């Protein structure tokens, strides 16, 4: 279920690991398919509505890894990594594409 349609734009996000999603990149790399990494920034009402927690839960369900954090601008920025089909699924489910 993907109840949070959000407006987002891809940006060059910092690469420092902050709030890690799932068990690490090794869990996502357990596939023979191509891997994908996407940096994103979400605009709108995303702070104070459990967006980071929702993102972490969805990442676990789908099987991708990454990080997510609030910014001082009132946005949420992050990175998602894993098999291409799973990353695309995560982006669609989260309303990022």
UniProtKB/TrEMBL annotation:
PANTHER family from the UniProt entry: ACYLPHOSPHATASE (PTHR10029), ACYLPHOSPHATASE-2 (PTHR10029:SF20)
Protein species of origin: Rhinopithecus bieti (Black snub-nosed monkey)
Catalyzed reaction equations: an acyl phosphate + H2O = a carboxylate + phosphate + H(+)
Which Gene3D superfamilies has this protein been placed in? 3.30.70.100
Q: Which residues form the active site?
A: 52, 70
Identification of the protein by name: Acylphosphatase
By its UniProt entry, which Pfam families does this protein fall under? Acylphosphatase
What Gene Ontology terms describe what this protein does at the molecular function level?
acylphosphatase activity
């Amino acid at each position: 279920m993907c109840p949070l349609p959000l407006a987002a734009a891809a940006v060059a996000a910092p690469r420092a690991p902050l709030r890690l999603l799932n068990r690490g990149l090794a869990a996502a790399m357990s596939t023979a398919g191509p891997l994908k990494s996407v940096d994103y920034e979400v605009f709108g009402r995303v702070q104070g509505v459990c967006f980071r927690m929702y993102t972490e839960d969805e990442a676990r369900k789908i099987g991708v890894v990454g990080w997510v954090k609030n910014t001082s601008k009132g946005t949420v920025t992050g990175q998602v990594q894993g098999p291409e089909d799973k990353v695309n699924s995560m982006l669609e489910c989260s309303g990022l594409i």
